[in-house]
């Protein structure tokens, strides 16, 4: 059974056997020469409760605007009682956006029984890793219980099913992943894999469903840094999909788990292997997929950024000027591809001896990245022998020492990633909307305070696809009169962090990049709102 179906890759194939056999269903082998990768490492048994329980007390925003409040159909409530409850809940303000939880759409399934004084509802957050979900639950109980007619309050906490905000045709394996975070340095040897693995296990400790994809085929690090019992990927022979291995509840995929260690092949072949390993794996529902990016800014990195709808990127550097030069290239690459860089981690920044702090590699590379490119958060990782040793032993540092200084830094980084991903999803989901009452498209590009209006017909006439403009001559095929003035979009959906997909009544799906929308003629005279029929 071939993993790579292209005939130009004859040396890679899957071998299948009984699923319950010791070696698993899958091993990736060379047909031209035998594999020398044979790992005899015995995984160390660890209890997940040792470290999960220590990562719950954080304070940061974790949820984005959802839908409006849904009242249960069986609720025996009056409008006044429901209004009282919602008014009480609107006192709870999200600490980052300054918006109450009712306006954010967190309140669901509101049931009120005035006769018995019982009130129940559900607070639905967008991620189970919310650091302040306990605070939300406590405050919701308190504010509703203060109502004079309320005798009993029942609050249920939940999270939305994992789903990408990207509206394109994603591969089946990626369709139930909420956030994909790239950890990149564009330079080898700076600790990128260490940051990626420890970030993933920190997010898992916060309650999220997490996966790690090791995108470095030439030198995969994941098999050394974690110790799953099954060190070979398996294959589902019916679906022809890859089943990730697992360690402490985190799903793992790496070329190093494919049975032949490191690859010796040309770039286009590597891009194909990475694409297939990533997109055909059965990731299932994940809140965060952490991608350990390979060094550089070449074909492999561009392929990953273009194939996968990355939510955000975390940049890893060291204090040296040489590291900054390479990191700057990576930041510019992400900027061109409209992937927000949300944090910088400066590894090996310092060490402490006898109460004094030393900076053996100098200072300033991390802060220079933050200042020059406007990345909002900087985290310093100290030089610690235990951090290096944990990477070699197969046990991440945040698992081995969940209350240490390094684990605390990763906890802060994890909170930052949760917060920034939530903000990005909220900004992207509301960047372009259709206001039916004024028959205009509202646009507020992420990271911009400006909001403006566009006429739907103007947007449709400015389509630059091959259906509207001749690709060879540049001649306008779509004529002004072809689009009626009263045209209205049927649906507007995000396309990653850079564009929206607009579906029109004639069935045409228009891809409208934010950059293009900002250049279109805007509405100056805002129409008067009209009544919208439900």
UniProtKB/TrEMBL annotation:
Gene3D superfamilies: 3.30.2020.30, Fe-S cluster assembly (FSCA), P-loop containing nucleotide triphosphate hydrolases. Residues 443-510 form the Gamma-butyrobetaine hydroxylase-like N-terminal domain. Its main location: plastid. Its cofactor is [4Fe-4S] cluster. SUPFAM superfamilies: Fe-S cluster assembly (FSCA) domain-like, P-loop containing nucleoside triphosphate hydrolases. Residues 84-155 form the MIP18 family-like domain. InterPro entries: FSCA_dom_sf, GBBH-like_N, GBBH-like_N_sf, MIP18-like, Mrp-like_CS, Mrp/NBP35_ATP-bd, NUBPL-like, P-loop_NTPase. Belongs to the Mrp/NBP35 ATP-binding proteins family. This is Fe-S cluster assembly factor HCF101, chloroplastic. It comes from Gossypium stocksii.
């Amino acid at each position: 059974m071939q993993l790579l179906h292209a005939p130009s890759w004859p040396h890679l194939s899957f071998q299948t056997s009984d699923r319950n056999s010791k070696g698993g269903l899958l091993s990736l082998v060379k047909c031209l020469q035998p594999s020398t990768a044979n790992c005899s490492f015995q995984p160390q048994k660890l209890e997940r409760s040792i470290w999960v329980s220590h990562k719950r007390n954080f304070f940061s925003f974790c949820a984005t605007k959802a839908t409006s409040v849904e009242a249960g159909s069986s609720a025996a409530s009056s409008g006044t009682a429901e209004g009282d409850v919602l008014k009480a809940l609107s006192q709870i303000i999200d600490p980052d956006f300054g918006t109450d939880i009712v306006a954010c759409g967190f309140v669901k399934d509101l049931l009120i029984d005035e006769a018995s004084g019982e009130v129940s509802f559900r607070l639905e957050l967008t991620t189970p890793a919310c650091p302040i979900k306990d605070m939300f639950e406590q405050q919701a109980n308190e504010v509703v219980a203060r109502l004079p007619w309320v005798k009993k309050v029942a609050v249920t906490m939940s999270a939305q099913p994992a789903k990408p905000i990207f509206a394109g045709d994603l591969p089946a394996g990626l369709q139930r992943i909420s956030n994909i975070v790239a950890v990149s340095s564009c330079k080898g040897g700076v600790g990128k894999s260490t940051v990626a693995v420890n970030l993933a296990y920190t997010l898992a400790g916060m309650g999220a469903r997490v996966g790690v994809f090791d995108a470095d085929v030439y030198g995969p690090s994941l098999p050394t840094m974690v110790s799953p019992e099954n060190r070979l990927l398996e294959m589902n022979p019916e679906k022809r999909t890859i089943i990730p291995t697992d360690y402490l509840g985190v799903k793992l995929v790496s070329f190093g788990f494919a049975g032949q260690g490191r690859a010796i092949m040309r770039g286009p072949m590597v891009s194909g292997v990475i694409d297939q390993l990533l997109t055909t794996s059965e990731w299932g529902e994940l809140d965060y997929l952490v991608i350990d990016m390979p060094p550089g800014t070449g074909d492999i990195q561009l392929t990953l950024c273009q194939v996968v709808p990355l939510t955000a990127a975390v940049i890893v550097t060291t204090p040296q000027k040489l590291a900054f030069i390479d990191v700057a290239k990576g930041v510019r690459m992400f900027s061109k591809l409209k992937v927000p860089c949300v944090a910088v981690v400066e590894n090996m920044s310092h060490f402490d001896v006898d109460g004094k702090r030393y900076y053996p590699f100098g200072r300033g590379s991390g802060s220079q990245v933050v200042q020059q490119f406007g990345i909002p958060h900087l985290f310093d990782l100290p030089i610690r022998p235990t951090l290096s040793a944990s990477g070699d032993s197969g046990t991440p540092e945040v698992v081995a020492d969940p209350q240490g200084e390094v684990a605390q830094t990763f906890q802060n980084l994890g909170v930052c990633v949760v917060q920034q991903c939530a903000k990005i999803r909220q900004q992207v989901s509301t960047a372009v909307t259709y206001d039916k009452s004024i028959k205009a498209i509202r646009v507020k590009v992420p990271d911009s305070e400006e909001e403006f209006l566009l006429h739907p017909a103007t947007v449709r006439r400015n389509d630059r696809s091959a259906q509207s403009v001749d690709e060879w001559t540049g001649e306008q095929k779509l004529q002004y009169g072809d689009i009626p003035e009263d045209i209205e979009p049927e649906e507007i959906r995000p396309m990653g962090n850079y564009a929206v997909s607009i579906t029109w009544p004639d069935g045409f799906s228009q891809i409208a990049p934010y950059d293009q929308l900002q250049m279109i003629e805007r509405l100056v005279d805002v129409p008067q709102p009209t009544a919208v029929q439900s």
